[in-house]
Amino acid sequence: MEGECKRRGEGQVEIGVMMEAVHKVEAAPPQSTVDKMKLRLKETFFPDDPFRRFKGQPPRRKWVLGAQYLFPILDWAPNYSLSFFKSDLGISYAKLANLPPIIGLYSSFVPPLVYSVLGSSRDLAVGPVSIASLIMGSMLRQAVNPNTDPFLFLQLAFTATFFAGLFQASLGILRLGFIIDFLSKATLVGFMAGAAIIVSLQQLKNLLGIVHFTKKMAVVPVLSSVFHNTHEVLFLLLFLWSWQTIVMGISFLAFLLLARHVSIRRPKLFWLSVGAPLASVIISTLVVFLLKAQNHGISIIGKLKCGLNRPSWDNLLFDSTYLGTTMKTGIVTGIISLTEGIASGRTFASLRGYQVDGNKEMMAIGLMNIVGSCTSCYVTTGAFSRSAVNHNAGCKTAMSNVVMALTVMVTLLFLMPLFAYTPNVVLAAIIIAAVIGLIDVPAAYNIWKLDKVDFLVCMSSFLGVIFISVQEGLAIAVGLSIFRILLQTTRPKVIALGNIPGTNIYRDLHQYKDAKRVPGFLILAVEAPINFSNTTYLNERITRWIENENSMEEKETNLRFLILDLSAVPTVDTSGISFLIDLKKSTEKHGLELTLVNPTGEVMEKLQRANKIHDFLGVNSLHLTIAEAVFSLSSQNKLQQQEVSSTLFI
Amino acid sequence: MEGECKRRGEGQVEIGVMMEAVHKVEAAPPQSTVDKMKLRLKETFFPDDPFRRFKGQPPRRKWVLGAQYLFPILDWAPNYSLSFFKSDLGISYAKLANLPPIIGLYSSFVPPLVYSVLGSSRDLAVGPVSIASLIMGSMLRQAVNPNTDPFLFLQLAFTATFFAGLFQASLGILRLGFIIDFLSKATLVGFMAGAAIIVSLQQLKNLLGIVHFTKKMAVVPVLSSVFHNTHEVLFLLLFLWSWQTIVMGISFLAFLLLARHVSIRRPKLFWLSVGAPLASVIISTLVVFLLKAQNHGISIIGKLKCGLNRPSWDNLLFDSTYLGTTMKTGIVTGIISLTEGIASGRTFASLRGYQVDGNKEMMAIGLMNIVGSCTSCYVTTGAFSRSAVNHNAGCKTAMSNVVMALTVMVTLLFLMPLFAYTPNVVLAAIIIAAVIGLIDVPAAYNIWKLDKVDFLVCMSSFLGVIFISVQEGLAIAVGLSIFRILLQTTRPKVIALGNIPGTNIYRDLHQYKDAKRVPGFLILAVEAPINFSNTTYLNERITRWIENENSMEEKETNLRFLILDLSAVPTVDTSGISFLIDLKKSTEKHGLELTLVNPTGEVMEKLQRANKIHDFLGVNSLHLTIAEAVFSLSSQNKLQQQEVSSTLFI
C-alpha cells in the first residue's frame, strides 16, 4: 500500500482522506485479579511451565511421567550408551582449594553418582571445578590457615559445601532460579579473569614455598608479601630448589598450554586439552617412579590411603565463630558453581535441542552437594570443559557420570599407591594451565565493542576481585548491573517520531533521515513502563520537548497536538496513571490536545478504570495507530477552522 | 488506506502484493561513545537542563541570569505582593517531636527567611511539618527519653536536623534528586496513615499522662504499655483529671475536625482548616486567661522567654554514642521532608505553569536546615497545607515567607507572655486533628482499584510502620517497589500479534478479538530491554510459544517463520545480542526462519556491530514493519514452493 501512496506522492493528510475506517482501541477481555496474580506468579516462578507435559494424559501415564520427572534416570536408563573414559582433574582442583588431593578424588566419585540419578541434563559431567575450588580456598583462607590448621580447614570446607548445597537446593525449591540470571556474562568474564590472576599469584606461594604468606586474597597484600619475603625467595631459589623441579614444572606447563592451544584451534581435538592433565600426571608419576626422582629434590604427594569416601557428617562444624565465614563461602561458591553448572547444561541442551529445567537442576546440584558434604566431598558442579568432552564423544545420557564414578572408584580402591609418586610441581603446572584458560581477552574485547556499560561492569568485577576481594568484586558488578536496569526505567527514552513520506509509518526522527515531522503535531514515544520512578522525569522531559517545539516551530503552524505513543509502555502504576491525567491538564494549559496511541492491554485496562474514577479521556484521546490519530485530529482541526471562518464572515 | 483494503476485503497477502516499496531499516547516525556517555549523564543528572536559559545570551545577561539562578529573590523582589497573615502550627508540631514549644516558633522564623532567598518556588510556605516532626520525635525517642533527659534530646534534635540538611543539600549538589522519586505515592499514603496511627497512640500518653511509657514506636509495645498501666490510667481518670480539661479538649478537637471537614467539602474555604488551629489557640488562651482556668486543673504551657532564636551550633553533638541515631534520623527525616517539600512545590508550580528545579530546591531546603540547626530550629520543609493557603490567597512570590517570618518575629519578641496561658490539651487536640488528616482512605481505595501491586506496597509500608518501625516500614515499601521494577525487566511480557483484517496493523491477539493469526507465522513482541536478567526467561518463553504453535497448527500450514517485533525493546546489552544470535540458531534447528522487525536506534546499532563480529543477519532478517516482513517472507516462500514443485515435475 505504501507503494501506491508513493506513486501518487502525497502528504499524509491525503493518506488521511483515503483512510475511512478508524479503528477503536480495545481493552483485553476482563480478567479477575486472582487470575492475573496467578499468571504473574506462574511467569515469575514457573516460566518453563514444568507441568505442561502432564496435560491431558491418562492418570497412569501421569504417574510414569511424574516418576520420570523426579528420577530422570528412569527416562534414559533403557537406552543409554557409554561415554569413553574421561580424565579427572579432581586432585589438582583440590589443591586449588588448599585441600588434600584425596578430597578431589572423593569429590569425583559420589557427586557424579548422585547427579546421574537426579540430574536432567544428558551431557553434564559433574565434579570439582577450578573457579569454585579457588573461591572456596581463598575465602576460607581468610578465616583459617590451611597449613597451620589443616583439619579445621577441612571441616570448614565440608561445612561450606553443606551450606552451598542447602542454598542451591532451596533456590530450586523456591523457584528462585532467576537469581543466578543476575550474574551477567560481562560480570563473569571479568570475575573469572580476576580470579585467575589471583590464583596464579597464590601459586607463587606453592611454587616458591614461602611460609609466612598473607592470608588475604587481593593482589596488593599478596604481592607485598612476596616482596617482603624476597630474601626467603632468593634463599629458596639458590639453595633449596633443584633444577629437576624447575625443568619438570616448566616442560609440563608448556605441554599443557600447547595442548589447550591446539584444541582451541581444532575443536575436534577438544579432548586433547582435557586428556593432557591426566597424561602429564601419569607421565610425571612414571618418570619420578622410574628415576627415583624424589631423591633428587622433587617433592611428591606421598602415600594416599586406599579406600572409598569415609563419612564426614560428624565433621560439619556449626560453631558460631566460623558460621559467618562458612555460610558466606557456601553462598558465594554455591551461586558461582550453579552459574557454571546451569550455563553448561543449557548450552549443550540447546545444541541437542532439548530443554533443561533450571530449577530442577538447582535442586539436583544442591542435593548432590549436601550428600557430598557428608561423604568427604567439597563443592562440585557441572564442568563445562568435561561436559564438552562428553558431548563431542557423542554420549547420549548422563550414564557417563556413572562410568566416570566407577573409574574413580577403581582408582580409589587400587591405584592410590601410584599417586604416591606424583610430583607436586606437576599439579601446580596443571592448576596454572587451568586458570590461565579462564582469562578470556577476546570476549572482553567483544564486550567493549558491543556495549561500553557492560564493559564497565566487566572491568569493575575484574578490578574488584583483584584489588578488594572475591565477594566484594562480585557484589559491585551485580550492583552495577541492577543499577543499570533501574536507570533504564528511571530515565526512559522519549523519542520524537516523524512520518515516512508516502506511508502510514512513523519512526524515530533521529534514526530515520527521511522521516518528516508533521506540522502542528508533536509525536512522542515513551520506551519504558511509566511508574513512580520516572513520572517526574517524563514530566520535565516532555515539557522540554514542547518548549523546544514552540521555540522552533514558525508561528503560522504552531503546535496544536501532542500524540503520546504508548506501544512500548508495557505497564503503568498508579503514579503513571496520575502522570497521564496531569499531562492531559498541563498540555491543555499549553493549548495542546493530548492523544494516546496504542496502549497495550494492561495500560488500556488501567486507563479505563482510572477514567471511571476521574473522567479525563475525551472522545479523541485514544487511537489505534499514529496515522489514524494524525488523520482524525487534523481533519477535525480543519472543521474547527472552517467554523471559525464561517462565524467570522456571517 | 485501510479503508480501501476493507472495501476490497482482501487478506494481507493481497495487501502484500499491493505493497511494492519495502523500506530499509536504518541505524541512527553514528555517535562517538563520549557523546553517548555525555547524553546519558545529562539525561540522568540534568534532566531539567538547568542551563538552557543561558544558551545564546550575551555575557552580561549571563551574569544576571546566573545571579538570579543562585538567588531567585532578585528575580521576583521587584514585583512582589504580600500574602495575608498566615497561622503557624510550629508550637504544636514541636510537641509532636517531643521538643519544647518555643523551638517550634524558632523553626518558623529563620528557615522561611533562608528559603525566601534561596528557594525557587513562589508558593511554598516553609516551616515545621507534622510528618517529619513525628518521625524525628519517634526515632530519637528510641535513643533518649525526652522527659528524663530533655537537654540531650534537644541536642540530638539539632544534630539530626544538621545531618538532614547536609544530606538534602548533598543530594541536590550531586544531582541525585531522583532518589526521592523512589518514594512512590502508594508508599507515602501507607506510610503517612501508619505514622498517623502511631502518633495518635503516642498522644494517649500525653492525654493520659502515663509516666512509665515505652520508648518504642510500634503499635504492639505502645498498646501493651497502655494496658499494663491501666490501673495508673484509671487512677488518673478518677482522681487527677478535671472535667474542664476533658470538655475543653473534646470540644476543640470537634471544632478542628469540623473545620477540616468543611474546608475539604468547599476548597474555597481551605483557609478554614489552616486558620482553625490558630483560632483555637487564641480562644483557649483567652478562656484560660479570663476564667483563671489554670487553677481548675487545666495544665498550661507556662512562661516562655521573649527573644529571637539563640545560636545552637555549640549544641550540635557528634559524640560517637549517638552519631548513628542522629545520622539515621537525619537521613530519614531529610528524605521524608524533601518529598513533601518538592512534591508541594511541583504541584503548585504546575498549577501556575512554571517549573521548579528539583535539585536546586533540595540545596535550598538543605541549606535552610543546616542554618536552622545552628539557630535552635529543627527539621523544616515546604508544607503542603500552608502552601495551598498561599496559593489560594493568590500570592505571587516567596515574599510570603518573609511576611510570615516577620509575624513570628513579632510574636517571639512581644507576644510570648500570652502563650503562657495556652492549655496543653489544646495543642494535643491540634496534633490529633492534624495527624488524622494524614489518613487518606479514599486514596488507598483508588490505589486498590487501579493497581493491586501498588496497594500491596501501600499496605506493606502501612503495616511495616505500625508493627515494625518507621524506617523499616519505609525500607520494605521502597524495596518492594524496586523489586517490582526489576521483575518487569526480568520477566518481560512476550505478546503474540495477529493481523487486523483489511489493514497493515498487527496487534495483541489476546487484546483485539478481531485480530487474526497469520498461518505459517509466529509474530511475537517483547516489551522490555533484552538484557542479562531476562535472556534465559525469553529463551524458555519463546521456545514454549513455538512448541504450542506446532502442537496447535494443523500440519498442512505448519510454522515456517518467527517474526520478533523489537519496537518495544529500548536497549539490548551483550547478553541480549548473544540471545538474538542463539535464537537465530535454535529457530533454524526448529526449521524456522527468524526475522527482526523495527529495532530502535540503539538496538539497530548494536545489531550491526555484532553482525560485523559474528555475521548472523541474513538478507531477510530485518524489516521495518511486520506487514512488510510478512509480505516479503510469504512471497519468497511462494517462490521456493514453485521451485520445489518445478523440480518435482521436470
Architecture overview:
Chains A, B: InterPro entries: S04_transporter_CS (IPR018045), SLC26A/SulP_dom (IPR011547), SLC26A/SulP_fam (IPR001902), STAS_dom (IPR002645), STAS_dom_sf (IPR036513). Chains A, B: It is found in: Membrane. Chains A, B: The chain crosses the membrane at residues 99-118, 150-174, 186-204, 233-257, 269-291, 362-381, 402-420, 426-448, 455-483. Chains A, B: Residues 511-633 form the STAS domain. Chains A, B: Pfam families: STAS, Sulfate_transp. 2 copies of one chain form a homodimer. By secondary structure, the first copy, chain A, is mainly alpha-helical. Chain A folds into 4 domains: 50-76, no CATH class; 80-165 and 196-439, no CATH class; 440-490, no CATH class; 492-638, Transcription Regulator spoIIAA, CATH 3.30.750. The first copy, chain A, contains 27 helices and 8 strands. In chain A, strands 4-3-5-6-7-8 form a 6-stranded mixed sheet. A two-stranded antiparallel ribbon of chain A has the order 1-2. In chain A, helix 8 packs antiparallel against helix 17, helix 11 packs parallel to helix 12 (219-228) and helix 22 runs antiparallel to helix 23 (470-490). The first copy, chain A, is elongated. Chain A starts with a helix and ends with a helix. The model of chain A is unreliable at 1-21, 76-88 and 644-650 (pLDDT under 50). At the A-B interface, helix 1, helix 3, helix 11, helix 21 and helix 22 of A face helix 1, helix 3, helix 11, helix 21 and helix 22 of B.
Keywords:
6-stranded mixed beta sheet; 8 strands; membrane (chains A, B); STAS_dom_sf (chains A, B); 5% strand; homodimer; mainly alpha; two-stranded antiparallel sheet; 650 residues; STAS domain-containing protein (chains A, B); disordered N terminus; 4 domains; transmembrane helix (chains A, B)
